[in-house]
Amino acid sequence: MRDKRGMMVTGIRILAAAAGLAAAISLAQQATPGTKAPDSQSTQNPQQGTPAAPPPRVARGPGGSRAFLGLGVPPDVEAAKRGAPIFASNCAFCHGPTARGAEGPSLLTSDAVLADDHGEKLVPFLHQGRPSKGMPAFTQLEDSQLTDVTEFLHLQVENYANRGSYQVADILVGDPAKGKTYFDSKCTGCHSVSGDLAHVGTKFKPLDLQRRWISPERNSPARAMTASVTTPAGIVSGTLTRIDDFQVAITDAAGHTLDFERVPSVQVQLKDPLAFHMTMIPTLKDDDIHNVTAYLEKQK
Q: What is the Cβ-side half-sphere exposure of residue 152, based on CA atoms within 13 angstroms?
C-alpha cells in the first residue's frame, strides 16, 4: 500500500514541475528568434504587450452575500429601527427579542413572513391575528406601525441568514434612574439587586438581560407552576404537568405523577410564580423596557 504522505509529496513535485515547464514555454513563446527572452522584471519591453486584465473579484460584502443566499427585497433598515420597540413590547415575550422563538414559535422560517416584502401580506394578518392559536389581533396598532414591525422581522431573517451583515443593535438607550424608579415600585416584592439579581449586569448581555426580565424562563423548580387538586378524598398538591378542559396532571413531592379527571367534584387551584410577569407584559411601555434594562445592566 502506498503511503498517503508520499503520494502527497509526489503530487506536489509533479505540480511544481508542471508549473516550471509552463513558465518556460511562456517565455519561449514571447522571445523572437535570435533575441533574448524578455526579462521577467522588465515593464518597458514594447514586445511584451498589455498585461491581461485580472479576473473579476467575487463580491464578499453584504451585497455579495445577499445575492449568494438568494435573499429577497432588502428590508428598510430605518423602518426596522422604528419597529424594534413595537415588536419588543407587543411580540417579544412570545416570539423572543429577535423573533427566534420563546413561548411561541420562531418567525424566521414562517411562511407568512417569508412570502411578504414590505407588509402587504403581514399587516392585514397582524390586524386580524389568529386568536384560535393564541395570537391576538393587533387592532390598536396603526398600519404604519405594523409595517415597521414587518421590516423589523425581515431584518431579523436577513441577519439570521447573512452573518456578514449581522449587527446587534444597541438597546442600552434608556435612563437607568427612571429604570430604578420602575423597579422599586413594581419589582421589589419578589426581586432585589442585592439578592437574587446581584451582579446581574455581568451575567447576561443586554439583549438577553432584557428578554429574561420581561419573560423569565421556567428553568428552575421555584418558577414551576403548581396546582392543588381538591377531590372528595382530600387535597393533593404538586408541580403542574398538564392541564386542559378534561384532565389535570401533577407530580407530587415523591416524584409520582397523578392524573385527575376534571369532573364537577374536582377543583383545581393554580399558582404561577411568574403570574406577575404575564400581567405586567401588556402594560409595559417602550420607555419602561429600555429604562429597566439600562438600570439592571449597571448592576455589576
A: 26
Same fold flag, 67-165 and 225-272: no
Q: Per the structure block, which three cell numbers stand in for 180?
A: 430604578
Give the DSSP per-residue string, 147-215: HHHHHHHHHHHHHHH-GGG--------S-HHHHHHHHHHHTTTT--TTTTTTTHHHHS-HHHHHHHHHS
Amino acid occupying residue 296 = L
Q: Given this structure, which CATH class describes domain 67-165?
A: mainly alpha
Q: What one-character DSSP code corresponds to residue 260?
A: E
- Give CA–CA dist 106/108, Å, rounded: 6
- pLDDT surpasses 70 at 246: yes
What are the residues facing 231 on neighbouring strands?
A: 234
| Cell of residue 269, nine digits | 387551584
CA distance 40 to 74: 48
Supply φ then ψ for residue 225, to 5 degrees. -75, 140
DSSP reduced 3-state for 294:
helix
Return the C-alpha torsion angle 151, 152, 158, 160, nearest 10. Answer: -160
Confidence band of 40 (pLDDT split at 50, 70, 90): very low
Q: Helix, strand or coil for residue 255?
A: coil
Closest by Cα among 288, 107, 136, 153 to 213: 288
The whole-angstrom separation of Cα 4 and Cα 2 is: 6
Say if CB 271 and CB 225 are below 8 A apart: yes
Does the reported pTM lie above 0.90? no
In this structure, what C-alpha cell is assigned to residue 276?
A: 406577575
CATH entry, 225-272, from 1.10.10, 2.30.30, 2.60.60, 1.10.890? 2.30.30
Domain ranges of the chain: 67-165, 176-219+278-297, 225-272
Integer Cα distance of 123 and 227 in angstroms: 39
